[in-house]
Amino acid sequence: MDFGTIFSELAAGMGTTVEIFLLTLLFSLPLGLVISFGRMSKVWIIRTITKIYISIMRGTPLMLQLIVVYFGPYYIFGMTISSSYRGTAVIIAFALNYAAYFAEIYRSGIESMPAGQYEAAKVLGYNGGQTFFRIILPQVIKRILPSITNEVITLVKDTSLAFSIAYAEMFTQAKALAATAHNVAPLLAAGLFYYVFNFVVAMLMDYAEKRMNYYS
Amino acid sequence: MNILEMKHVKKDFGDTKVLKDINLSVKEGEVVSIIGPSGSGKSTLLRCATFLEKMDDGTITYVGDPVVTSVNGASVYGSKAQQKKACSYFGLVFQNFNLFPHFSVMKNITDAPIRNQKRPKEEVYREARELLAKMGLSDKEQAYPCELSGGQKQRVSIARALAMKPKILFFDEPTSALDPELTLEILKVIKELAQEKMTMVVVTHEMNFARDVSNRIIFMENGVIVEDTTPEKMFSSDNERTRSFLGKYYGDAQ
Ligand SMILES: Nc1ncnc2c1ncn2[C@@H]1O[C@H](COP(=O)(O)OP(=O)(O)O)[C@@H](O)[C@H]1O
Ligand SMILES: [Mg+2]
């Protein structure tokens, strides 16, 4: 079994893996911001609910969360689950999980901003929304980018957890291929793919960090 | 006409009474210095005047518009629109500048007038360039705050405040974060503004500056105004507390 064959066998799975990765970021990055607002809310009940949410998401295995999101509708509500729900379940579980991590990162960044920035903005007539999106958030993003990079790199590897609900992303396919061919090469190919994927991600994040180095 | 009128201002932080019945009026073109030991409530007074802090009781009137009134012994703030209008009358210069680090010098100065005051871009840019020239910073238009010295940062922050065309400018210890050389540079700028009849309230520890530049000096201690008078009278005061405070300064300042 040569690598050419393996990669063409795994190509579809790679596409799916990249898709899980991109969709998870697309949903979890904004959702994390919303959750971080909840976490910092002045309203006790909102703060407590988000705190519990974050603690559950971070304190239980993502694999378990995937299984709950996928099988939950059937076991809890007796709904029939179509196989097309598999992909949706993966994105829902990943987005909910990563949003919790991102929320804590946003929060640390937002709380590290000096009060003087808000005060200067207020005196200069910026309203609350403008202050946040124009003055605070751009600086927060710069501050939290290294932590975001860590999470994003973990996400690349975590996509393989979708195999726990038999979703046909790359790792699931590689494992099946290795089993039928009695050959470890597909798994090595998978490893190489994750490595290269992460290499590219790290380069992009590094570029983004450099782009923001024009001020300190 | 009084640009600013604050009457019977009271402010507590928990159990500490920080402002106890403060009255402050500032006429157009007047320069008022506020002096006093640290912890006496000078910053809190400026922060109340600029709505960064909510006062417990007392009134604020800007240019004849009452924006904070007192009802049954408690301050009542006017509507959002009234507060916004009042905000357009004043500017505030902070001790540690609080420039926006991700904006260039030019953008720090022009962003608020363009976005928040909806003034024409060309006009705002032209005026910003004039202000920068006046501050001796024409070559720094495209620089970022992190590339500037403390004195340059403070000059940018003064330009940023002036670009909003305030009727009154508050300074909270504008030179306290600067070393002596840069301090002089900033005091010179404020002095020039005074000559142009800019209405200003300056909290400062620079006694020579207060004496030379202000029309009035206010001495605050423990949340009350001990004296509010001309520089001549302040520096020849026979009030024991004033003398003791100024004595301490002149002990090491001269
Ligand atoms: N946000 C705050 N919370 C609690 N106490 C404060 C706060 N701001 C100021 N104070 C207290 O109020 C008093 C006056 O402070 P401040 O107005 O900063 O004095 P000054 O500017 O004259 O040095 C001080 O005792 C200070 O500790
Ligand atoms: Mg102070």
What percentage of the residues of chain B does DSSP assign to strands (E)?
25-35%
CATH H-tier superfamily of chain A: MetI-like
Number of strands of chain A: 0
CATH fold field value of chain A: MetI-like fold
Number of domains of chain A: 1
List low-pLDDT spans of chain B.
none
Radius of gyration of chain A: 20 Å
Question: How would you portray this structure in words?
Answer:
The complex is a heterodimer of chains A (216) and B (254). With 216 residues, chain A is an all-alpha fold. Chain A is flat. Chain A is 81% helix and 0% strand. In chain A, helix 1 (3-39) packs antiparallel against helix 2 (44-59), helix 3 packs across helix 4 and helix 5 (115-123) runs antiparallel to helix 6. Chain A starts with a helix and ends in a 5-residue tail after the last helix. Chain B has 254 residues and is of the alpha/beta class. Chain B has a domain at 102-165. Chain B has 9 helices and 11 strands. Chain B has helices spanning 42-49, 80-87, 105-115, 121-134, 150-162, 180-195, 207-213, 231-235, 240-253; strands at 2-13, 16-27, 31-35, 57-62, 65-71, 74-77, 90-93, 168-172, 199-203, 216-221, 224-229. In chain B, strands 7-8-9-3-10-11 form a 6-stranded mixed beta sheet, with helices on both faces. Chain B has a 5-stranded antiparallel beta sheet with strand order 2-1-4-5-6. In chain B, helix 3 runs parallel beside helix 5. The longest helix of chain B is centred in the last third of the chain and has 16 residues, at 180-195. Chain B is globular. The mean pLDDT of chain B is 95. Chains A and B meet through helix 5 and helix 6 of A and strand 7 and helix 3 of B. The complex binds adenosine-5'-diphosphate (ADP) and magnesium ion. Magnesium ion (MG) is lined by residues 42-43, 173 of chain B.
